[in-house]
Amino acid sequence: MVKDSLQLYLDTLVFTADIVTPIFILVFLGALLRRLAIVDDAFVGTASKLVFNLTLPVLVFMSINKTDIAAVLNPGTLIFTGIAILLLFVLLWFITGLTGMVAADRGAFIQGSFRSNYGIIGLAVSFNLFGTPGLAHASLLLALVIPLFNVLSIVALSLGQHQQDTPGPGIFKSILTNPLIIAVLLALPLAWLDIHPHALLQKSANYIASMTLPLALLTIGASLKLKELRACSGLALHASAFKLVWMPLLCLPVAYWIGFSGEDMTMLFVLLGCPTAAASFVMARAMGANATLAASIILVTTLGSVASLSTGIYLFKLWQWI
């Protein structure tokens, strides 16, 4: 029995590592290219702008537009997920406000602590666990969290621009003019009405969207500076602990008490326990927050998620929820 349990955990660990390892490869490739002087600060700046203003908005639009919202609608899961993320964001806002963290660090810390890489890692894990039905379920959650994560990220990162503790006109303007929010506002009604771009436009858009993750990860690697990473290590570890450990621990018992179990509980765990999205670095850099801290959180959570996601999935299998 012990041998079977150990083998199950090792298999789960390998499964998770297979998903996150390519992320590290691209980050370290970016660092190597910078060391070889193949890329420089100009590349990082241009690539970040390209991702923030074009490729990421197109990715967001296509992800939402492809989702059959009516077919996979699950109000209970969506409502709980939305409320949980909002409450966690408020908790982070309150805690970081008490610490006296400077605005640029605070924005990057908050974003890195709650924003999941669900569109890449979450969908892959969900599909491998539950097949096509799981992918449909995860896609609906993605349609919810994409606008939610982006709006809350803009609010947090705008602290670095406006140096204030409460949302004001500057933050609302940042939200309404943000390319990601515009993409969401365009995609949601079209997805609901089942209206999709022409096949040629879809193919072109998919090419553009596919550049997002490689470019974002390469810029993270090219931006890495060991001295700056060490200076941010304490904050990065705290943010990563909140992202990978405290978010699931705070939300899952409540979900279980309400009546969640099986696939719904597993999906919620994967959403909350995914590492921080690579796009958080691009947004932090574009909006004047601490991009080095954002990069550190991405690296730590991606590495840590191999153990945390594997442990959670292993326990869910023991409890026969998967």
From TrEMBL:
Give the way it sits in the membrane.
Multi-pass membrane protein
Q: Does the keyword DNA damage apply?
A: no
Residues annotated as transmembrane? 12-33, 42-64, 76-104, 116-134, 140-159, 171-193, 205-224, 236-259, 265-284, 291-316
Q: Does the keyword Lipid biosynthesis apply?
A: no
| Pfam families linked to this entry | Mem_trans
Q: What is its main location?
A: membrane
Cross-referenced InterPro entries, in alphabetical order?
Answer: Mem_transp_PIN-like, Na+/solute_symporter_sf
Q: State its location(s).
A: Cell membrane
Q: Which UniProt keywords apply?
A: Cell membrane, Membrane, Transmembrane, Transmembrane helix, Transport
Record-linked PANTHER family = AUXIN EFFLUX CARRIER FAMILY PROTEIN
Q: Which family does it belong to?
A: Belongs to the auxin efflux carrier (TC 2.A.69) family.
Q: Please identify the protein, giving its name as recorded.
A: AEC family transporter
